[in-house]
Amino acid sequence: MSDGDCHPLGFLLGLPFAFLSLILSIIGVVIWIVGLSLSCICPCCLCVTILVEIALGLIKAPIHVMEWFTSKIPC
């Protein structure tokens, strides 16, 4: 976001959805820790690697939600 952008309304409207995605992010952290442990035990399991990648997407969800909301509402 540059200095000229101001989207306070988008930020405020996105807060409830960011909170929900924050909960998903916490779940993603747990899945990531379990998946990382399993991939260290058995690195040949491709499904565990895919699970870790999905968990990383869940961890980044709050940032993506807030960026999307703030980009949709004009200043």
UniProtKB/TrEMBL annotation:
<keyword id="KW-0472">Membrane</keyword>
<feature type="transmembrane region" description="Helical">
    <location>
        <begin position="41"/>
        <end position="59"/>
    </location>
</feature>
<dbReference type="GO" id="GO:0005615">
    <property type="term" value="C:extracellular space"/>
</dbReference>
<dbReference type="GO" id="GO:0005886">
    <property type="term" value="C:plasma membrane"/>
</dbReference>
<dbReference type="InterPro" id="IPR055283">
    <property type="entry name" value="TAXIMIN_1/2"/>
</dbReference>
<feature type="transmembrane region" description="Helical">
    <location>
        <begin position="12"/>
        <end position="34"/>
    </location>
</feature>
<dbReference type="GO" id="GO:0009416">
    <property type="term" value="P:response to light stimulus"/>
</dbReference>
<keyword id="KW-1133">Transmembrane helix</keyword>
<dbReference type="GO" id="GO:0010199">
    <property type="term" value="P:organ boundary specification between lateral organs and the meristem"/>
</dbReference>
<dbReference type="GO" id="GO:0048530">
    <property type="term" value="P:fruit morphogenesis"/>
</dbReference>
<keyword id="KW-0812">Transmembrane</keyword>
<protein>
    <submittedName>
        <fullName>Uncharacterized protein</fullName>
    </submittedName>
</protein>
